[in-house]
């Protein structure tokens, strides 16, 4: 069976059975195509562990980030596991390959006081606000106030927003859904946005966040909005939608929220994925240690 047939089956499996996002599919396709090009389109059923280790070493020589190398090897791992599951190969050649460790980094996130400055929009005087201003503030506040991912925000529909219950229904990775609560400020802001949205003459009937022309917002627009507003209140290097998600989790943790609750709100499948946010709150942990441990100074 040709490589192309095997790959077609693999990507169909990822999309229809595993519910992988289009972004994951595109990344896997690029990584696998690069792998096959390196080995001159060798038959996928004929690879051995030595070749995979050789390829991993080649990637390291390219001075790629450990995270990039791990992603490329993960794509290969998923492919070869699929081939074994469907009995095209007898063993998975990527199983014996050691992936590079990721360095633990403490992210520089906006402070609570900095993000509080964003609340300066006066909701009581909506006549001085326009559609895009209200929409942009809703996007900023929803990302920080709920911790949802950028794509989750883009995919929100009008039916997902329930102001009477002060909550939104979020569809995350793998099409998993969760209910996330809204604070009073965000609920009021969304209400104002909906009133502006209803006045658009032409619009997408389902997407919640729209452009002025009534079309669904895209990734680039959301990034530009976030970067623009964060630049006005903070000097942190990374001003992205994901940084607001990180700030949401870290600020919740610093105020005493438990990791399991934060995990549920973020839509993480495991607690390990949530524990990364404890890295930013090490100062609080040290303070607690110094106050309560009998041998602390």
Keywords:
297 residues; 52% helix; hpI Integrase, Chain A; mainly alpha; 13 helices; elongated; 3-stranded antiparallel β-sheet; single chain; DNA polymerase, domain 1
Mean pLDDT figure: 86
Structural class: mainly alpha
What's the CATH superfamily of the largest domain, by name? Intergrase catalytic core
The span between the termini is 68 Å
* Low-pLDDT residue intervals, each spanning 5 or more residues: none
Assign an overall shape. Answer: elongated
Could you name the CATH class of the largest domain?
Mainly Alpha
Give the C-alpha Rg: 23 Å
Q: Main beta sheet: strand number and arrangement?
A: 3 strands, antiparallel
> Order of strands across the widest beta sheet?
1-2-3
- SS field, number of helical segments: 13
CATH architecture of the largest domain: Orthogonal Bundle
Helix content: 40-55%
Q: Classify the beta-strand content into a percent band.
A: under 5%
Q: Please give the number of β-strands.
A: 3
- In CATH, the topology of the largest domain is named hpI Integrase, Chain A
Domains counted in the coordinates: how many? 2
What order do the SSEs take from the amino end to the carboxyl end, as H and E?
HHHHHHHEEEHHHHHH
Organism: Thermaurantimonas aggregans
GO molecular function: DNA binding
GO biological process, one term: DNA integration
Keywords: DNA integration, DNA recombination, DNA-binding
């Amino acid at each position: 069976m040709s490589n192309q047939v095997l790959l077609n089956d693999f990507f169909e499996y990822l999309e229809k059975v595993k519910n992988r996002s289009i972004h994951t599919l595109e990344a896997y396709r690029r990584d696998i195509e690069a792998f096959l090009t390196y080995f001159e389109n060798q038959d996928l059923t004929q690879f051995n562990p030595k070749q995979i280790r050789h390829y991993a070493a080649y990637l390291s020589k390219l001075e790629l980030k450990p995270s990039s190398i791990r992603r490329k090897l993960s794509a290969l791992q998923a492919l070869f596991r699929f081939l074994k599951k469907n009995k095209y190969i007898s063993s998975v050649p990527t199983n014996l390959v050691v992936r590079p460790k990721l360095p633990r980094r403490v992210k520089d996130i906006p402070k609570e006081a900095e993000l509080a400055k964003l609340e300066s929009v006066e909701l009581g005087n909506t006549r001085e606000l326009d559609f895009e201003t209200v929409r942009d503030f809703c996007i900023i506040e929803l990302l920080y106030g709920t911790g949802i991912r950028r794509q989750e925000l883009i995919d929100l529909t009008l039916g997902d927003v329930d102001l009477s219950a002060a909550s939104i229904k979020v569809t995350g990775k793998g099409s998993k859904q969760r209910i996330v609560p809204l604070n009073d400020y965000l609920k009021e802001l969304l209400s104002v946005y909906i009133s502006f949205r209803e006045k658009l003459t032409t619009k997408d009937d389902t997407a919640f966040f729209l452009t002025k022309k009534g079309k669904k917002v895209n990734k680039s627009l959301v990034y530009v909005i976030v970067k623009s507003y964060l630049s006005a209140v903070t000097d942190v290097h990374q001003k992205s939608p994901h940084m607001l998600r990180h700030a949401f989790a870290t600020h919740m943790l610093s105020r005493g929220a438990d990791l399991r609750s934060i995990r549920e709100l973020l839509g993480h499948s495991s607690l390990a994925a949530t524990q990364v946010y404890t890295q930013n709150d090490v100062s609080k942990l040290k303070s607690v240690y110094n106050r309560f441990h009998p041998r602390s100074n």
